[in-house]
Amino acid sequence: MSAIIDKLAAIVGERGLITDPQGKHPYLTDWRENYLGAALAVVRPASTEEVAAVVKLCAAERVAIVPQGGNTGMAGGGTPDQSGREIVLSLNRMNRILEIDPIGYTMTVEAGVVLETIQEAAAQHDRLFPLSLAAQGSCTIGGNLSTNAGGVHVLHYGNARQLVLGLEVVTPAGEVWDGLRALKKDNTGYDLRDLYLGAEGTLGIITRAVLKLWPRPKDTATAWIAVPSPEAAVALLSGAHAASEDNVTSCELMSRQGIDLVLKHIPGSVDPLAERHDWYVLMEWGSTRPRRAGDNASGLAEKMEGYLGEALEAGQVLDAAIAQNEAQARAFWALRENHSESQKREGPSIKHDISVSVSRIPAFMSEGLAAMKRVLPECRPVPFGHVGDGNLHFNCQGPPGWDKARFMTHAHAISGAVYDLVVSHGGSISAEHGIGQLKVDELAHYRSQIELDTMRTIKRALDPQNLMNPGKIIRV
Ligand code: FAD
Ligand code: MLT
Ligand code: ZN
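A: This is the predicted complex of the input protein with zinc ion.
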């Protein structure tokens, strides 16, 4: 094996290669610590040419490659298997912003740029890159595009797929596909770009991307709202689209169970409302008009106050607080964004990242909660998520005091009950986190034969040696 290590070192240099167990460890386990793999080496190329050379070498030597960005994925897609024969190819040294075009509203970046860095660079040019999620301080744009990430602004701006114009990809043969076009319109045959988006590194390695930018909002209004039920939350959102003049940029639903976990585990967290409630909505409206500018003023906060007042009278809202300044808005958001972290600190949990149509959320919620409890009465459901996208993190916390091994013996039955229900509502078993290695069996079970056959045909055609993130998404 040392022969291939020497060849890899010749391509990426000493700085680009990690072979010692301690150095490799962070790349071999996932954020949730559900998987622990092994790897021949962690390879960190610094350019597209180095990525291509590494892939060519691996193709010749039949060494499988696991691409990795910020390693914040929720489905084990970036974790190698336990054979020790794969390499992890980390993009984290390819972290340059190559060009910002404020006139054309685009930004060209390398795949390893951290999402927050992209947001900040856009803001410096009075532009917005709208992808936003709690892991934005460490996830990379290559990982975001490869998982077709969602986050908290999808209902207004779309998911990662809608935020990108062009890609550069290193194919499983080590060739470079230059699709780095900044075109809004391009109908020249099959859309290769769309194949790689959401492919979780199974079809090639994204090395660069041309991203779309938007005008930066000059005013936002953020409200923390107690609602009587998920049904009321959906109705509140439905009316908010018109009341805000189509300016709803986020709508997140949370339950009391989730808030209690955040208050327990995240120091400094404070419940914004005096009384306890079962359900909460965090709603944000955004406008490119400034807050105060005479006739051009956005008037967002006033409109939101008026709308919530009417909803209170109609019984759709029980209580609400509108953020009076940025610090307060950030505090509201922290209660939402810390759900994953506090669930992790609380102990073992099972995640279901599902979607149904928005109007089916209330029925799914009550049937789903009952279904979970039927399987394991002691379990603690923690449902929350992007209700504006019909996407719920229909998570389930283990009973107090249970260790992971004990709780996981019920995982199959709990997830099966949830997914069967999702499918009966015409929904999806994976709305934004992807399949990775976590849901390979579920994908095979819930997708139709024709879909699975087509996916396998694509995978075999593009990666005939099955060396690009094998065992993820679909078995070939
Ligand atoms: P990684 O975890 O490194 O990789 C993810 C997958 O992409 C793997 O299959 C990997 O092989 C592949 N990959 C990575 N880079 C490349 C590349 N350059 N080319 C080809 N394949 C590649 N996700 C959401 O969608 N919405 C959320 O709201 C959200 N919230 C989160 C909150 C927290 C606290 C955490 C920890 C995670 C959250 N996630 C969320 C999940 C995760 O952040 C996203 O999936 C993110 O897009 C992964 O980016 P990454 O750079 O960490 O990718
Ligand atoms: C989020 O939206 O916070 C994550 O995608 C959800 C999760 O951790 O389940
Ligand atoms: Zn999410």
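The radius of gyration is 23 Å. The pocket of D-malate (ligand 2) is lined by residues 134, 339-340, 351, 385, 393, 395 (CB under 6 Å).
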